[in-house]
Structures are given as structure tokens and as C-alpha cells.
């Protein structure tokens, strides 16, 4: 028996050498760098979650936004009313597209972790080998994808609507402000889902912060028609820059400023705002604030 054990020793040593070469020591992470497979899997999971009910998450918001165009065009667009040199329907259409994108980005991101808290499935987000940055990127990316889908559906409907001209004067502004607006609201939604302990808290953020800022952002008017005090309040609203910049992409005009440089400055400022908010989200996720006991 002793001879047999000695005979097996070289084979065992070879097997241990193979294990040591292919696997790190116990306690050392197997995945280094970015977990691309895990990140992609969570992103696809979040996409499939809202696509399972796409009638509610994509098409219903598009129809609701289109109804805004119909109602306000009938109520305020009579007599060939001109704003920024275009008819009222053409003026209001980009703002409605941007508003629909932002609201749905917030709705998608704000449900992810909150739904896990309420249903007891939050462990499905915390157990996989994903870093806080990867978790944030997947959730925010899925929310932005939903926003783009809603925006595309609304834009298609409005392009077919009589009296609406959807020509793109500055495509870069459409892409930049569209993505930055969706990202801003997705990050806000992620923070809301971390903070909220029940669906009422999430609804409060939507009703008392997101909706008022959206409706008071210049979607249906130019701020030059407001009193100076209200103009100052509007310029403190980041939603105003997102919607006005997005409108600039279609019309080549906006009420941000009189030159393209003003729009470029607003684009840079919105990018920096998203960087700051993204860092806050990352730190909140990394600390486990309200999701780890």
C-alpha cells in the first residue's frame, strides 16, 4: 500500500500543479477587471423585464405623450401660432419626446431595486459577482434603452402627425441631450429606488419632483414669455436645458441662448451633472445604503 501511495504521488503532484495554474488560491477573486458576462446578463434581464409588458412600458407612454400633442395643439395652436419661427405643433413635439424619454427612464430605474426590496428578491442583485459600478451601469443602461424605445415610438408617431415637421437641424444635439436626459433620470431613479422603502415613496418622488420639473421645463412655452423671477427659476431647472437642447437639435433654435456656444455650454454642463450624480449613485451602491443590513 505504501508503494502504491508513493507511486501515485507524482500524478497527484501533477494534478495539483494543473489546479494551481488554472485557479487562484482560496479567497482570491476569480474574476478580475470587468465582469462582462455578468454585466451583459443583468442588462438583458432588465431589458426583458420591461419588454414582457411592453404595451404598458413602451406603447402606452407613447400614446399618452401623443395625446399631449393633440390636446395642446387644439387648445393653443389655433390661428397658425408661431413660436421660434415654427408652428406650435412643431415647437412642442421635441419637448414631448424628451419628456416621455426622461419620465420612462426614471420609471424603469426606480423600480429595479425597489421591486427587489418589496418582493424579497433583492438578493438576486447582491449575490452575483458584480461590482457596484457594474450593477449601476446595467440598471442605468437598461433604463436608457427603454427611454430610447419610447422616444423612437413617439417620434415616429409625431413624424406622421399632420403639421409636425421633424427635420433634424443638429443631429449631435438630438443624440447628446437625448442620452444625457435619459441618463440623468435613470440615475435619479436608481437613487430613488435605493432610498424608497415602499412604492408610495417612489410615487412621491415622481409626483412631487419629476413631474413638476418636467412640466415646468419649457416643454409647452419659451421662458422669454415669463417674468424675470420665473425665468431665473426655469434656468435653475436641469430639465429645461435637456428639453431646450433636444429641441435645438430639431429646430436649430432654442431659448437657452442666442448662439450655438450657449447650447454647447449647456451640453457640457449636463454631462458634468451626470458625472457627479453617477459618482453619488456609485458611492451609495458601494456602501450598501438601505439595501444591505
TrEMBL record:
<feature type="transmembrane region" description="Helical">
    <location>
        <begin position="208"/>
        <end position="227"/>
    </location>
</feature>
<dbReference type="InterPro" id="IPR000412">
    <property type="entry name" value="ABC_2_transport"/>
</dbReference>
<dbReference type="InterPro" id="IPR013525">
    <property type="entry name" value="ABC2_TM"/>
</dbReference>
<keyword id="KW-0812">Transmembrane</keyword>
<dbReference type="InterPro" id="IPR047817">
    <property type="entry name" value="ABC2_TM_bact-type"/>
</dbReference>
<keyword id="KW-0472">Membrane</keyword>
<dbReference type="InterPro" id="IPR052522">
    <property type="entry name" value="ABC-2_transport_permease"/>
</dbReference>
<protein>
    <recommendedName>
        <fullName>Transport permease protein</fullName>
    </recommendedName>
</protein>
<dbReference type="Pfam" id="PF01061">
    <property type="entry name" value="ABC2_membrane"/>
</dbReference>
<feature type="transmembrane region" description="Helical">
    <location>
        <begin position="135"/>
        <end position="161"/>
    </location>
</feature>
<feature type="transmembrane region" description="Helical">
    <location>
        <begin position="83"/>
        <end position="102"/>
    </location>
</feature>
<feature type="transmembrane region" description="Helical">
    <location>
        <begin position="173"/>
        <end position="196"/>
    </location>
</feature>
<keyword id="KW-0813">Transport</keyword>
<feature type="domain" description="ABC transmembrane type-2">
    <location>
        <begin position="52"/>
        <end position="285"/>
    </location>
</feature>
<dbReference type="GO" id="GO:0140359">
    <property type="term" value="F:ABC-type transporter activity"/>
</dbReference>
<keyword id="KW-1003">Cell membrane</keyword>
<comment type="similarity">
    <text>Belongs to the ABC-2 integral membrane protein family.</text>
</comment>
<feature type="transmembrane region" description="Helical">
    <location>
        <begin position="58"/>
        <end position="76"/>
    </location>
</feature>
<keyword id="KW-1133">Transmembrane helix</keyword>
<feature type="transmembrane region" description="Helical">
    <location>
        <begin position="262"/>
        <end position="285"/>
    </location>
</feature>
<dbReference type="GO" id="GO:0043190">
    <property type="term" value="C:ATP-binding cassette (ABC) transporter complex"/>
</dbReference>
Amino acid at each position: 500500500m505504501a508503494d502504491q501511495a508513493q507511486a501515485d504521488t507524482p500524478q497527484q503532484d501533477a494534478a495539483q500543479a494543473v489546479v494551481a495554474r488554472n485557479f487562484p488560491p482560496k479567497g482570491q477573486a476569480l474574476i478580475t477587471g470587468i465582469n462582462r458576462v455578468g454585466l451583459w446578463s443583468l442588462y438583458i434581464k432588465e431589458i426583458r423585464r420591461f419588454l414582457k409588458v411592453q404595451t404598458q412600458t413602451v406603447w402606452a407612454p407613447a400614446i399618452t405623450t401623443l395625446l399631449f400633442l393633440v390636446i395642446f395643439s387644439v387648445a393653443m395652436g389655433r390661428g397658425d401660432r408661431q413660436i421660434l419661427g415654427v408652428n406650435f405643433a412643431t415647437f412642442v413635439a421635441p419637448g414631448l419626446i424628451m419628456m416621455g424619454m426622461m419620465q420612462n427612464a426614471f420609471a424603469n430605474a426606480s423600480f429595479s431595486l425597489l421591486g427587489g426590496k418589496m418582493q424579497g428578491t433583492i438578493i438576486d442583485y447582491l449575490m452575483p459577482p458584480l461590482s457596484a459600478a457594474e450593477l449601476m451601469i446595467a440598471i442605468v443602461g437598461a433604463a436608457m434603452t427603454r427611454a430610447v424605445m419610447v422616444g423612437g415610438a413617439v417620434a415616429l408617431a409625431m413624424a406622421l402627425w399632420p403639421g409636425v415637421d421633424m427635420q433634424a437641424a443638429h443631429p449631435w444635439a438630438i443624440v447628446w441631450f437625448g442620452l444625457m436626459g435619459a441618463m440623468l433620470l435613470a440615475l435619479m431613479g436608481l437613487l430613488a429606488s435605493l432610498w424608497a422603502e415602499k412604492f408610495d415613496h417612489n410615487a412621491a418622488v415622481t409626483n412631487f419632483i419629476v413631474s413638476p420639473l418636467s412640466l415646468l421645463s419649457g416643454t409647452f412655452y419659451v421662458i422669454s414669455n415669463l417674468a424675470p423671477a420665473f425665468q431665473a427659476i426655469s434656468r435653475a431647472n436641469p430639465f429645461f436645458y435637456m428639453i431646450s437642447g433636444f429641441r435645438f437639435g430639431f429646430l436649430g433654435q432654442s431659448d437657452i441662448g442666442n448662439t450655438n456656444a450657449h447650447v454647447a455650454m449647456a451640453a457640457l454642463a449636463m454631462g458634468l451633472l451626470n458625472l457627479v450624480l453617477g459618482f453619488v449613485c456609485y458611492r451609495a451602491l458601494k456602501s450598501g445604503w438601505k439595501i444591505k443590513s
